[in-house]
Design goal:
Layout lengths: L2 H40 L5 H51 L6 H43 L1 H49 L1 H6 L3 H50 L4 H14 L6 H23 L20 E10 L2 E11 L4 E5 L6 H8 L7 E6 L2 E2 L5 H7 E4 L10 H6 L7 H10 L3 H7 L14 H15 L3 E5 L7 H14 L5 E4 L11 E6 L2 E6 L1 H6 L3 H13 L1
Parallel strand pairs: 3-8, 3-9, 6-7, 7-8
Antiparallel strand pairs: 1-2, 1-4, 4-5, 9-10
Helix pairs in contact: 1-2, 1-3, 1-7, 2-3, 2-8, 3-4, 3-7, 3-8, 4-6, 4-8, 6-7, 12-14, 14-15
The protein binds adenosine-5'-diphosphate (ADP).
Length: 562
């Protein structure tokens, strides 16, 4: 469904909101006009019957205004929240095919939270108030035309200044301020991030004082800019109120000069005063509109991001049972530069293949291609003979998955962190995977319900990788991918982890990416990648016999550990 069809579907609710908002403001005019007439006329002490219609009018307008305002808020927020929900849904769906690498971290979070809020603001704070202000302004001027046309002209001029020129000015000023504030905000955010994430290094080199000073200076610069921006906003508000006051004075002066009579003068003065009520907030709406439009532009950008991988129009379903993966002459490019070039390998059920090679060789890229988070430019990946491009990428990730680089630990209990990969897993099953990952002693000591700190800060590197391994085993993909599980661990911990990991994956179809060779005698085949190309291929024993990268690295590792 396009936005046009969606808006058509919402037309009823939008109209109710706009009409109710406009009617509430008109009832405000009605209230003030009838009350003004009533008070002025009552001062002349006429018979009560003369006043009775006005009395009923005052009551009806006062009650009706409240009811209409309520209806406007209800219908307006209903449409706005529905629009926001739809935007969020669209954002999620456009992010899934874009793959996990396109927009990351804080930027994505702010787009999901702040930018989708902007959709709500567009309706509730900009569009509906503008409609209400327009309706009220028109009716007030029409009343003026009937009572005293020259006064109506003064009112029209005042309303145009406060309702059109002022919002245009605030929108322009806000655009300028945003351009100046954005880099100042970004600088402060990056200084704070450095202070938080680099705290240990800053303390180690005695640089925390300098870093703090730089952070404070960035904060001061931002605060100074924000103060000046607030001053501009306050000046705009003052200008609006000034326009209101001057218009009322002008209307009264015109009425008096034209000898319009007390009732006409009072009614016109008060109608002018009230007509500004819905118009004055438009200056703030103009200021907000710039941010709203920028947010909508950013959301459109995400929607326009091309999907990272080609999705089939009529997907073939994933074959059941054990899977054989054949990679034939695969080439993958990153930003136009080759990351994999002519890589071939076959992974038959139950077979374990290790991919080794120096950093930047293309090992992770190979896993990404298998998980369908990056597309390939040539070659083929076949799953039981079916071209992987004919299967929905979600289905591929459902069966080809595992331990990613830098596994994330959520701020939740150990159990919840594991259950992420198997929400319905029984306690017995959790115990099984924890045992396979050799975490049982730690879990028994800490307790299943212990909260793990944000990003696993309460875990050691080894515990974190074992937890991730347990999670991958619980997910139990038909083809298990393991990306550098021993990365950043000390030698002894890495050795232990690799031994346990190779035990736990025995008999599973596994592709293991690693930069260290210890323990690889257990796998069925080893592929050595360099600059995106396969330079050696064979078993551990075969590769040790041949001279080349593998044997050299093996000897270097042996020297380091002896
Ligand atoms: P490895 O896992 O063997 O260290 P990678 O597969 O991560 O190697 O990277 C292979 C090459 O592709 C490297 O030159 C790397 O700089 C480049 N590369 C990896 N990911 C991206 C990316 N998202 N954008 C651009 N280049 C990338």
């Amino acid at each position: 469904m396009t936005w046009m069809t969606w808006i058509k579907g919402m037309a009823g609710r939008l109209t109710v909101a706009a009409l109710a908002g406009a009617a509430a403001d008109l009832f405000g005019i009605g209230l003030i006009a009838s009350a003004a007439w009533l008070i002025t006329r009552a001062a002349e002490q006429p018979p009560l019957a003369v006043l009775s219609v006005a009395i009923v009018g005052v009551r009806a307008f006062a009650t009706g205004r409240g009811v209409l305002r309520y209806a406007e808020r209800l219908a307006g927020h209903d449409v706005a929240l529905r629009a926001q929900a739809r935007t969020r849904e669209e954002l999620y769906t456009s992010l899934i095919p874009a793959g996990p690498l396109t927009h990351r971290g804080a930027d994505l979070l702010s787009r999901m939270v702040d930018d989708t809020d902007a959709v709500q603001d567009l309706l509730v704070r900009c569009l509906l108030p503008a409609i209400a202000a327009l309706a009220t302004g028109v009716v007030a001027v029409v009343i003026g035309v009937f009572l005293l046309p020259t006064a109506a002209v003064a009112l029209l001029v005042g309303l145009v200044m406060a309702g059109v020129l002022l919002p245009l000015a605030t929108a322009t000023a806000s655009r300028r301020w945003s351009a100046r504030l954005a880099p100042a905000r970004a600088e402060l955010a990056s200084r704070v991030a450095d202070l938080v994430h680099g705290a240990a290094d800053l303390a180690a080199y005695g640089a925390e004082g300098r870093a703090l000073e730089a952070g404070m200076a960035a904060d001061d610069r931002l605060a100074a800019l924000e103060r000046r921006q607030a001053r501009t906003g306050a000046t705009a508000m003052m200008a609006g109120v000034l326009a209101q006051g001057l218009t009322v004075v002008a209307v009264v002066w015109i009425c008096t000069s034209a000898a319009a009579g007390t009732i006409t003068t009072t009614v016109l003065a008060l109608v002018s005063l009230v007509a500004f009520e819905p118009v004055l907030p438009l200056a703030a709406a103009g200021e907000r509109l710039t941010g709203v439009l920028a947010a909508l532009r950013r959301l459109r950008e995400i929607k326009a991001t091309p999907p990272a991988v080609h999705e089939p129009s009529t997907p073939v379903s994933m074959p059941s049972g054990p899977l054989t993966i054949e990679i034939q002459d695969l080439a993958v490019h990153h930003s136009g530069r080759p990351a994999l070039d002519g890589v071939s390998l076959t992974l038959t059920p139950g077979r374990r293949v290790a991919v080794v090679g120096p950093s930047g060789a293309g090992k992770s890229t190979l896993l990404s291609a298998l998980m369908r988070t990056v597309d390939y430019v040539s070659g083929k990946i076949l799953i039981n003979g079916i071209d992987v491009r004919d299967i929905a990428s979600d289905d591929v990730r459902g069966v080809v998955s595992g331990l990613t680089q830098d596994p994330y630990v959520f701020q939740a209990s150990i159990k919840a962190n594991l259950r992420l990969a198997g929400p319905d897993a029984s306690d017995g099953r959790l115990e099984q995977v924890v045992q396979a990952a050799h975490l049982e002693t730690w879990v028994a000591r800490t307790g299943w319900d212990t909260e793990l700190g944000e990003d696993g800060r309460t875990l050691s590197g080894g515990q974190l990788q074992r937890l991730a391994l347990a999670r991958a085993l619980l997910y139990d993909p038909r083809v298990l991918l393991l990306d550098e599980p021993a990365e950043a661990l000390d030698e002894a911990t890495a050795d232990d982890l690799m031994t346990d990991l190779l035990d736990a994956t025995h008999g599973r179809t596994t592709l293991l990416v690693t930069h260290r060779l210890r323990g690889l005698e257990a796998v069925d085949e080893i592929i050595v990648l360099e600059n995106g190309k396969v330079i050696q291929q064979g078993t551990h024993a075969q590769l040790l016999k041949a001279s080349g990268y593998y044997r050299a690295l093996w000897q270097a590792e042996a020297m380091l550990t002896s």
